[in-house]
Amino acid sequence: MNFVFTTYSHYFLIAIVLSVIALGVVRLRANVQGKKWITLAMLAITLWNLCAMLDISSTTLGGRLIWSKIEYLGANTTAPLLLLFFLNYPSVRIRLTKFQIAMLFLLPTITITMAMTNEWHYLFWTGFTPLPGIINGYDFRHGFFYWLALAFNYSCGTITVFQIIRNAIQFRGIYRLQSITLLIFSIFPYAAGLAYSLGTNPFPGLDILPLAFSLGGLGIVICVVFMRLFNLVPVGRNVLVENMQDGLIVVNSSLQIVDINPAACRLLEPIHLRVGESIMKAGELISDHFTEKEPRVEIEWKSDPPRCLELTTNTLNDQMGNEVGIMGIIRDITELSEMRQRLQIMATHDALTGLPNRPFFYDRFDLALANAQRSNKKFCILALDLDQFKSVNDNMGHLMGDEVLLEVARRLNSTLRGVDTVARFGGDEFIILLWEINSHSDAIKVAEKLLNILRKPYQIENKQLNLSASIGIALYPDHGIEIMELIKRCDEAMYRAKESGRNTYHCAQLSKDP
Q: CA 468 to CA 404: how far, in whole Å?
């Protein structure tokens, strides 16, 4: 068998090299459902190109026929093998039994057999016409089984293209880009097959279909190596990511968004983020935590209504350990944040009046003490107790008493400064912390103001009540420096006020007083 290598022969040699590279990359790098089918498809394409090269290089018609027949072992199996691959990519769509797979290859087996035995019936090739000006160039005239094989292969190819289009529609970000890339490369064998079969081949005497399939293999190489098709295969992504309640954002090393799910778009409204945009568009509250790579942060997000969001970021590394991007998970924790606030309020505030309780008051005292020591200033504590409050509970019921306490708390808060603190210590007893009160006269002015506001009539459930209060006054550091000492002196002064006829105030005695 004699061969003459022409320009066409070198085309197929290049195609063989591309196919072998694609086969090697798939075997070494791919970890994907249907890996065996894409491996067999690349083997079929390699065999197809090898036989096509030997076919075009043969110097006799007999040699060309031999290699053409062997060539169909690859030509008639490539399309169904690629179909089986995409039925399993990115997840199993249709699970075929062994019998169904065997039936899928029944027609290719028949057509290959008809090509091998063509001299007995001439139903695959009906004749051969020499092409002028081309060394050993022939135009193969096709019979029924050739067209049957072509229809079958195009049916498999059409289903495969629909699967790729389906992926492009379903997935987002880099997954969609991968599918679109494969779709573009699938055009080459589709167009080449039509050109060859319909007699519009731009290269007379050259079977361009195996070359086109090699370009398709190159597309797989590009997706595997440069786009990490099989390293980022979105198995079950439509369920796990598209429909998840938490937001997902993936950015590359340049902080460009390569993937974002609908939940993230919804949570980050009114800002509208899209794939390909920079994460900086989300604003500093979000972008800073991608750049600084803080593992977890809570963000007060200004939306309508406002939300509290939790952002968790994780670094994405490739197989070599190189950082290739960052994944952020956004969770709406508004209800959790509100519950925490409610629990904190319950722990530090009185359940009835909403005023600070004892522990909260002690914390505020420590702040006032530190401020007084630092700035060499004084502060004041008032002990306030309602006069004859027990009679309200006894005669009108505890619900009425609670309403009175609520109104007392409201009047105290409205009278005092924002920096001051009024706490309920229990029953009808209140403790008041006045910041930066430097003299008894200033403290007395506040006490008189409080007594005046509290003695005004109370309108509760269409009933008018008249109440008054007694107040004890203690000044730091005149009457003590410890909180319990100051509270004790306040209480003593308050009881002296009650003994003096109530509805008045009394200052604590100095520690040197008898």
A: 12
